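Customer ticket, subject: "Can you confirm the structure for dipeptidase E?"

Message body: Hello, I'm evaluating your service for our small team and ran a test protein. I'd like someone to confirm that this is what the system normally returns, since I don't have a reference to compare against.
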Amino acid sequence: GSPRRLLLISNSTLHGGGYLGHCQQHIQSFLGQKVKRVLFIPYALHDRDAYARTAREKFESLGYGLDSIHESCDPVEAVRKSEAIFIGGGNTFRLLKALYDNSLIQEIRKRVLEDGIPYMGSSAGTNVATISINTTNDMPIVYPPSLQALGLVPFNINPHYLDPDIKRTHMGETREERIRQYHEEPNTPPVLGLREGTMLLVEGDKATLQGVTGARLFLRGKKPTEHEPGTDFSFLLTDSNALN
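Agent reply: Thanks for trying us out. I re-ran your input and got the following:
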């Protein structure tokens, strides 16, 4: 079995709450007592200093020290020494480009998949944990060398998944239609639509939906299905091609 431990959160802030407020208990139980310091990767936002301050304040309030990778003179070494990694939200294209630019893709994969250090992602940080960023909602404001991401799980996630609003007159594609268009391409993996307030906990070969809302699962060539918190999604961790 894989030693990987992931907490993949749909969104950093839930309406009516503060930064990571809705999932702070999940974070504490995920990181536990052994982790003392978290390595934060703020590459998805332009103002990395301000972002690191926000994250540091939150994690210190939960009892963890936080080091931001942008303050390190050697990002690769920072990943090699890290006890846990947290990648925050923002623009997914900007984030992935910076991970490639700093030669961090293979380093993070090794630390998480081989060494078993905890990985937390929120929004864009959840997107890059998957096979690719093909199903992000973000605009391609910069051009990463590839859309292939960290591949910590063998499927894709659509954070902030939105259901169609039947009262609205907007005639653009719904999120569901866009994911269906993605699945019209050959060999595309499953996509898990995580609504606001939802997260996926992965421990080795077990994956469980957590949080307060639900998720919508899209498999290529099949009708999408609805899932409540507590759902066992471990089957998604097997080779995704076998599911299609």
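A couple of notes from the result: The radius of gyration is 17 Å. The chain has a mean pLDDT of 93. Feel free to reply with more questions.
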